[in-house]
Each structure stands twice: as structure tokens, then as C-alpha cells.
């Protein structure tokens, strides 16, 4: 039996039996420290002898660059943007994640289809439609959902780079200014994520704690998915 | 975008949408351009949209094709993205304004091509669920040999994806053989869709004039109540020209 399965109709020409690695997803709204934790987890896993591929949105060779440019122009319609993201995601799934899984890597991804679905729904997409579009995606081994309250999110954004056009959902005209818009937009995203917890089996991780505590919990949850690494003989670095 | 997305068959616009489908070499573009000129001469506001023409997405598609980076899935999604941009910018607004919109190829092209590439038929139909249902969808039915003659006789080299070369259909990687097999499978998909979507079949072996007459008859019936510009531009210019000569 193949370890992996698709959400829906799946991808043509992929033999699921060949996929040996693990697919671990970090999800959550903006400003929860996802990318920090992806970096930490990667380092920790590699130190323990696992090969890791980390990946994130709009990084595909096919559409990543154009998608980032199109976002700068703010000219994309809602459906178009949702599908452009789906294209970017499919390219990364087929050309990065699946080959790495085939080779036995642990794939750590900063966001997955859940973020893409949440954004699309908040922008007016039919929820059933977007869910079906992502029927080609692989079901992950774990979805670690870093959850923070909206107030914590605001603090982090203020400490960081400030309110960003897209992170504030400014294209949706939800509030008088970036602050109002951010609160409303991120609040809507948070509701979409929370609604997915049960149906997709998210593991909720309280992201409002200190980085070390959050990281410890993420390590714990990740360890459960891994087979124990054989003890390295003394003097020889740990590799699998 | 504040309004929620509408799905196939649920859009209600005052305009009309006529689309043509068929394999390369079926003569559908010739027929559509004749229809376009005629509609304008009749005083309708006409707007046209071609497959794979969104300025925003086009260069990604072009690059992906040139570098042969596309899988069946990304091929399908990038064309759907292109189509979504055209739907949101070039199809829905003129339809809202009451114009006649003409499209050379529509969602059925994607259904045929993507399914031949191994994408699930239900999935791709769902993917295009946001599309506006055409007022009339014409399908130009052509025997494969006739289309092949028109294509091979008339223009430059066949392109890689057009011939379905990514599918490795021809043992010797012969592009003409691959093209023939690929287009043959596309025809099979079109034939299945005739009943499924109520495509109006035009026999593309008839004379150009006969085909155009059939199209105009069907389009005329579907145009009842559609608005025209006040000035019938072509006729006015024609009479002006006549006047100056006399």
C-alpha cells in the first residue's frame, strides 16, 4: 500500500508507491513565525541525519517570478490570482516536493494548500470549487498549525516590517486604513483556518509562546513521524 | 472582489457570448472573423477574445512551453489562469455592458486537450466552473484528413505541445505522426462533449458561405433583445463613400 494519497483526482503520471519520504506542513496566518520555525526544524532534522527540502509559496521556477510581479501591479482578479497560485503550487509539488519524497527526503513546507484555499475563499472563491481544484495535492503526513490570536499577530507585524499591502488584504477594501484592513482580513483568514482544523486534522500549536517552547513542541510532534535514526559509530558523522 | 464567485450557468448578463471550437485547420477562426464583421455591420457592439491571450499570464505559458517545463497538470492550470484573467477582464465586463462577445476557443478546448494529457475529466470541468456559459457554442466538425491537409499545407512547423509531443505518442518522435494521433484523440473528446454541453455542430466540409449562413441564422435568433449602437457605422461609411464618388 502506498503511504501517500491525493485529496481528490490526483496528478496524472505519478506512482504513489514510489514516494518514501515525509511531507510536513507548517501552516498559520502571517506573523506567526512560520519561516523561523521551518529554518529551525530543518537544521535540527539535518543534524539528526535526515535529508530535508524546505519550500514555500511563489518559489516555483515556472510561475514564481511572474506571480510576484503581478502582485506588485495589483492587477489580478480573484479567480485569476487563486489559479496563478495553484499553478505555482503544482509546479513546486511536481518538480520539487514529489522528486524529494521519491528520494526519501523530509519535505518541510512553509504553507500548503490550506493557506491557498483560505486566501481564495476570503477573496470570494466558492469554497467547494477551490477545494476541488486542489484535488491534485498530496495529503501531508502532518499539518502543524501555528495559531496566534489577532492581537499577537499585530504586535509581531509592528515589530517586523509593518503592514504589507497583501497581508492586509488591501485589495479587498475592508477598512479605512491598513490597520483596519489588516485586522479584518487576518481575522477572516483565521476563521477559515480554524474551520479547517477538524476536517483536515490540523495539529494546533499555540504560537503565542516563546520561540523555544513552540520549537520544542514542533520537534516533539515531528519526532513522532520519524523512524529512529540508527546510532552512528563514534567518530563518524550521523547520516542516514 | 466583494461579490462571491458565480459558477457555470449561473451568470446573468444582458450581453451574448458566442464561441467556436474545433481542431486546428477546421476553419473556425475564418468563420468567427466573418461573423464578427457581419455583427459590426449590423450595428452590434462586438468584443472578441482569443484562447491563451491574457497579457498577464502569456509569458509564463510561453516560457513554460519553450523550455518544455510543463507537466499535464501545470499545462492545465496555467491555461485556466489565463482564461480566468480573460474572463474577469475581457469577457464579463463587456457582457455586463450588453455587448456581443466572440471567443475563438473556450473551455471545451481545455477539456479536450487536458483529458487527452491524462488529467481527470471531472477535475478539469470543475476547474473551469467559474466560466460563463456561452449563449451558443459552435463546434466545427472536420474529418482529420481534411484538417491535416490544411495545417500541413498552409503554415510553419507544428509546435511541440500542439502535436502532443510531451505525450510520446510516436515511437520515432515523428512530429507529424504525433500530431495526427494527438488531434485524433482531441476529436474523440469533442465528439463526447457535443451532447454533454449541447455544442452546435457545423459541418466544416461545407462551403465557407454555407457554414457562415448557418451560423448567422442561429446567432440572429439568439440576438433578440440585444442592444445595437445608434449609428450603423459600416453602412453609413459605405453610403458616404458612394456619395463622394457620384
Overall description:
The complex is a heterodimer of chains A (240) and B (246). Chain A has 240 residues and is α/β, with parallel strands linked by helices. Helices cover 47% and strands 11% of the residues of chain A. Chain A has a five-stranded parallel sheet with strand order 2-3-1-4-5, sandwiched between helices. In chain A, helix 3 runs antiparallel to helix 4. The longest helix of chain A has 25 residues, at 78-102. Chain B has helices spanning 28-41, 58-66, 72-96, 107-116, 121-127, 144-154, 175-197, 208-222, 233-245, and strands at residues 16-21, 46-50, 100-104, 136-141, 200-203. Chain B has a five-stranded parallel sheet with strand order 2-3-1-4-5, sandwiched between helices. The chains are: A alpha/beta (240), B alpha/beta (246).
Order of helices and strands of chain B: EHEHHEHHEHHEHH
Oligomer: heterodimer
Q: How much beta of chain A, percentage-wise?
A: 5-15%
Most extensive chain interface and residues per partner: A-B, 38 and 38 residues
The major pleated sheet of chain B works out as: 5 strands, parallel
What is the percent of helical residues of chain A?
A: 40-55%
- First CA to last CA of chain B: what distance? 56 Å
Count of helical segments of chain B? 9
**Shape descriptor of chain A:** globular
Q: Roughly what is the average pLDDT of chain A, rounded to an integer?
A: 87
Q: Please report the total strand number of chain B as a whole number.
A: 5
**Share of residues in strands of chain B:** 5-15%
Judged by helices, strands and strand pairing, the structural class of chain A is: alpha/beta
What's the helix-strand series of chain A?
EHEHHEHHEHHEH
Distance between the termini of chain A: 24 Å
Mean pLDDT of chain B: 88
Shape annotation of chain B = globular
Query: Quick one: biggest sheet of chain A?
Result: 5 strands, parallel
Task: Give the number of DSSP strands of chain A.
Answer: 5
User: Spatial order of the strands in the main sheet of chain B?
Assistant: 2-3-1-4-5
